[in-house]
Amino acid sequence: MAEKKPRILQNNKDMAWSLIPLLLACLVIAAIAGQCSLRVGGPEAGQVPRIDLGASLQADADALDFPIRRPEVPAEWIPNSASRPAVTGADAVASTVGFVTPAGSYLGLTQSDAGEEELLRFRADGARTDGQGVESTAGTEWVVYRGEDTEPFWIADLGESRALITGSGSQDEFLTLASAVASAPVLDPR
Asked: Can you tell which superkingdom this protein's organism belongs to (predicted)?
């Protein structure tokens, strides 16, 4: 039977030789699972996920008690997200959809029956915002809010509901979405 090495003879070299087989085993398992890759030159942008905008908004129109509009955005805009969060601080729910523009910007549209202040507080996530004026498009006035280190927020009162637009888009992209929302038909619940 082999005797154990005396403690005085155990050193960093022995530890390294013990870890090498473990690291090789981890690399083999990662390669087999396909979870490891090496890309010289850095990462590449992947494909933007796409959702069915019409189906998402129709589901919200069927489930919520306020009018939901389906904006006709440019064909090259990719609808990529949808959710139905509860508006904190108000007894209300919101319908939220997001778009990725050809420039790579993101614009989010939130529709809710919550009041303007509650909706702004909810989407601004508690950040301090100040009114910066009004933008008019397609016969609808949008109150523009900006805050330090926040994206702009455009809010319009559409009668029984409010719409809020936010994101990293340009002024022209905000105007395009605002115009599409203002002129969009209200979806009939099924």
From this structure: Bacteria
